[in-house]
Amino acid sequence: MLMNHATYSKFKETTFKGRYVVNEQVGDFLETLNSDFKVEIVGYSVEQRLIRAVTMGTGTQKVLMWSQMHGNESTTTKAILDLLKLLQSDNPLAVSILKNCTLKIIPILNPDGAEAYTRVNANEVDLNRDAQERSQPESKVLRDVYESYQPDFCFNMHDQRTIFNVGNSSNPATISFLAPSHDAERTISNSRAISMQLIAAMNTELQELIPGQIGRYDDGFNANCVGDTFQMLNTPTVLFEAGHFPEDYEREKTREYIFYALLKALLCIGENEINSYPQQDYFAIPENKKLFFDVIIKNAHIIDSSYTKDIAILYAEVLEEQKIIFQARIQKAGCTEGYFGHSTYDCANENDFSALKKQSFWNVLQS
Fold this sequence. Notes:
- This protein is of the alpha/beta class.
- About 30% of the residues lie in helices and about 25% in strands.
- It has twelve helices and 14 strands.
- The chain has helices at about 5-10, 25-30, 75-85, 90-100, 110-115, 135-150, 190-205, 225-230, 250-270, 280-285, 350-355, 360-365; strands spanning about 40-45, 50-55, 60-65, 100-105, 155-160, 165, 175-180, 215, 235-240, 290, 290-300, 310-320, 325-335, 340-345.
- The strands form three sheets. An eight-stranded mixed sheet has the order 1-2-4-3-5-9-7-8, with helices on both faces.
- This is DUF2817 domain-containing protein.
């Protein structure tokens, strides 16, 4: 294991917590970086917010990473800031990375979406479906940075919903990875093979920390997706998906595991260890399935006779006064056999029923 929790805690940027992370906060943090970190404005969003990039390191291996392409996916941004804090230190892992790699990071590609806490940008366009047309200023910024920087590796950083489990198990997909396809046949090009090996390396590290909680994302080809496009351009590209860890809706634990994944990937690249990890180990990672609800309530007819059997709830993430509120919404009524709940209550159990009545969503169940 490269780093333990106690050591990580020394580098966690504590001014960032929760799910709402916006451009102004990140800009303030970037101003604290020392002169070895080059911060530049690489473009502007639809609403003329700054899009910043920070470059560091002197190594020959060039890595480009970007986060919050979807404005409401901020977990990886927090992990990136923790990484930057580590890289400012004299920790031997930081020294190795900066000696062997040069990193260019765009912490928030979609600052308008981050401000409004939406997936899309201010023109209501999903930037991860705009890689070919590049109709949006943010899409053009990313492509311009890619073409001018000519990276050897790309890291495309995202969050995924709480619905994902790993394979057929009841384990949440706390982190998922994807080596994007470069054609409709999903063939394995040289760049895609390298992506797979790099994911296998990160999976080896993470299995020691969260065994059984790493998934493999669907590899259906879509040329409009940025990862697929960069893979088509023969740049090894990895999609990171930050998911749910039990009782961690603020995603502070997931943030830590993304940090470890980034650390492993960069060391693996810098120390030329990618070929130590067989390509087939990527396929040993179980595929994601969508079998989770946030809450499952069994025997719901005890609450209200209009319910036939069970109720399944998903939380909607709602921005209120610069904080994300998780609002319960009934997603399914009926049999929930074969599904899992991050929380489960059986109304036929007195203790469960008593605990359920204390939950903030109790009124939703009675309406």
